[in-house]
Amino acid sequence: MVNLVVSPEQINDRKFQAHILKWLKAVANLTKKSDATVNENWLSDIGQALLENLPSWVFSRQSCNFVASKHTFFPSFKEMMEDLKDWADLEDRRKTELKIEHQEAIKNAADFPQPVRNWVASYVKHSGSNWKYDDAQSPNLQEQEARDKRFQKLMKAQCPEAYEYLFPREAKENIHTFEERIAQQKIEWADEKSISKTIEEIKNLPSLLLQGENIKFLKTGVSKYAPHLIDWVDQEFPTPYAPQKEEKKQGFFA
Predict the structure, then answer these.
(1) Which domain of life is it from (predicted)?
(2) Average pLDDT score over residue span 28-35
(3) For the residues of the chain, what is the DSSP string, one character each?
């Protein structure tokens, strides 16, 4: 049985109270109910009871769908507790299996070039820690999802080999040829808005090693396609840098 320890801080956390209420409304929207019974005051009482008994990570979109799928009508507090504990057990097993998969992913990536291995290792490390960087405690669910999406998006743009290795199904759904990727990169490296966004994404990367690699990629692209903007990039990242020919051979900037 998974350990469902409740943090004392979450019980009086207004932000999480609002999250629980939103979660309960989503369950209500997915089940039949009597409007006279399922009102906000009633949901608030259930929400307070839930957050006193279960940790914050239990209340996700996936657990919402799981609970709602078990009932035709809006469940009672007792039913909800039982369902959420069942879901937590399933999720704990899934995370254990995912951890094993991640360890295998790092092992099987040994033959990839170093930049690809760095991306894979960094993703595995931070996804396994719920995207906790320098936080005193794990970030809330919304922030975890946001950090995961930001990391995946940047990885897909900067190291598609690592993205395709970690997410083969998703990569197949949005296949771009090498020429299409290069054409898109040329547009992004010449656009101030895209450059500004990339700068912020690089600053938010949890790994200094990945930050360094992405700074090199950014400076290479801007130097080639928007040289008039390189001073701006150098101000943001004053680290000494010399473009390397072998990176061009790998096809990041054709």
Answers:
(1) Bacteria
(2) 81
(3) ----PPPHHHHT-HHHHHHHHHHHHHHHHTSB--TTTS-HHHHHHHHHHHHHHS-GGG-SHHHHHHHHHT-SBPPPHHHHHHHHHHHHHHHHHHHHHHHHHHHHHHHHTTTS-HHHHHHHHHHHHHHHTTT-SS-SSPPPHHHHHHHHHHHHHHHHHH-HHHHHHH-HHHHHHT---HHHHHHHHHHHHT-HHHHHHHHHHHHT-S-HHHHHHHHHHHHHHHHHH-GGGHHHHHHH--------HHHHHTTS--
Tokens of 64: 């919402």
pLDDT at 38 over 80: no
More confident residue, 124 or 247: 124
| Mean pLDDT of the region 50-71 | 90
CA distances to 28, 106, 129, 218 from 225, in Å? 52, 34, 38, 11
pTM of the model: 0.46
